[in-house]
Amino acid sequence: MVLLLTGPVALGLAGTLLPAFGYLPALGAEHLSLAPLRSVLATPGIVQSIGLSLGTGLAATALSLAIVIAFTAAWHDTRAFARLRRLISPLLAVPHAAAAFGLAFLIAPSGFLMRLVSPWATGFDRPPDLLVVNDPYGLAMTAGLVVKEVPFLFLMTLAALPQTDGARLSRVAENLGYGKTTAWLKAVFPLVYAQIRLPVLAVLAYSTSVVDVALILGPTTPAPLAPRILAWMGDPDLSLRLKAAAGALVQLALSGAAIGLWIVMERVLQRSGAAWATAGARGARDRGVRLAGLAAMALVAGTAVTALALLALWSVAGPWRFPDALPGSLTVGHWTAAAPLVALPLLTTLLIGGPVCLTAAALSAAVLDMRTRSGRRGPSRARVLLFMPLLVPQIAFLLGLQVLFLTLRLDASFGAVAVAHLVFVLPYVFLSLADPWDALDPRYRQVALTLGASESRTFWLVRLPLLLRAVLTAAAIGFAVSVAQYLPTVLIGGGRFPTVTTESVALASGGSRPLIAVHAVLQMLLPLAGFMAATAIPALLFRNRQTLKAVS
What is the fold, at CATH topology level, of the domain defined by 34-314? Predict the structure, then answer.
């Protein structure tokens, strides 16, 4: 499985490196040269593009982590924590593009927020000429990333807490006179951060190289670096493929520099944090910090839920003129009109996502079962390799992977797109399945083996039924990841495999809001259907086996 994850990344980087230095015989470029890199660096606005990618990526990652840590530190083991946990967890399944469209519908000059305060508070009877979405500083893009990355980092933090004995450590610190927030930050946070460090770096790598969110919410004059690379790759002038490869190399260096800068900040904060932790300040008066943490998390959750509700409303809205807060009527006409347009993308999404998520679940279960039989958890560096496709910018190796598939005459094929999706789906499926798998009482297996069952029979008749819900939930997570894939589908598929995500992003530049909303709602409904199936199938299979139903 490690080879399946690292192989495409390594081959893709190799396939990007040679064209980046001017070597691509298929285009007649047979001599190494720095000309492609010079061309990238001479592009007007390239410095601003690099700065936008770096600034928005660092800001989105830092804000997301700060919100998660502040809320967790101040409100763990409370009812508010449990309620927001139930509200935020489902947001992880929402694709980035759908969340970005929902946010755009919320904050645009003609969006819902402006409608709520117009004209009685603003005096506007028509949308103001304000550049909110696609603003030149990337603020809307940063907000869109925060709305999506907070749920991810929050769930990673929740998964890490049981491994740190955080509840006991926090209680001990509180009994020593520390405030609730200070106790958690001093006693638990260092242990939690060690567990979530790789996911944080993955968020940083993604945020500095994101394409779909940048196309929907990001600046356009100039755009961040990754969308410009994609434009060069799709240009009819084939000589720009060399420039695109060089741009991908610059993107790799940019994301690497962002990670390096983050590590430097970690060390600085580690030293100052150690001094603060040993200074003895109890921080008992932390009401302001607690309220700020709750407000920030509630704002993210409320923004996400409102944005998604707006998508659903726009998909059935009749005439909705500014500054009306709500549409004058509701209609299903947008859905019936869009049905012929979404039929093929919907089918393609299912045909790619279904086999990919099931394959990822099967591979993960097989690897975890082999690990159970051997009794070894594997070296810690294996976890780094597992995150490799998430730590390397997609556009940095997908361009090279496209060249490789082109050389093998596998370009723009269904199998190539499925393999590209699998590279990104497999880490999420394995990580989501590993904890439930390891948490299963080992005595079930020991009893089965003692009764004479083979390892294979024990797997099929004992472990798999007990873990069926976890396996199907992991597969549903994988399906949600596959539905959200934009860049692998566009680059490896050569534009021949339209999905609901690629079609919705294509509408960002000028599609009607109801049509965009229909595509975005489909993006949300598909993962939801996957999770519903993951819940319903075990319930149906084990409806007469209450104990097994409870365990699974």
Answer: MetI-like fold (1.10.3720)
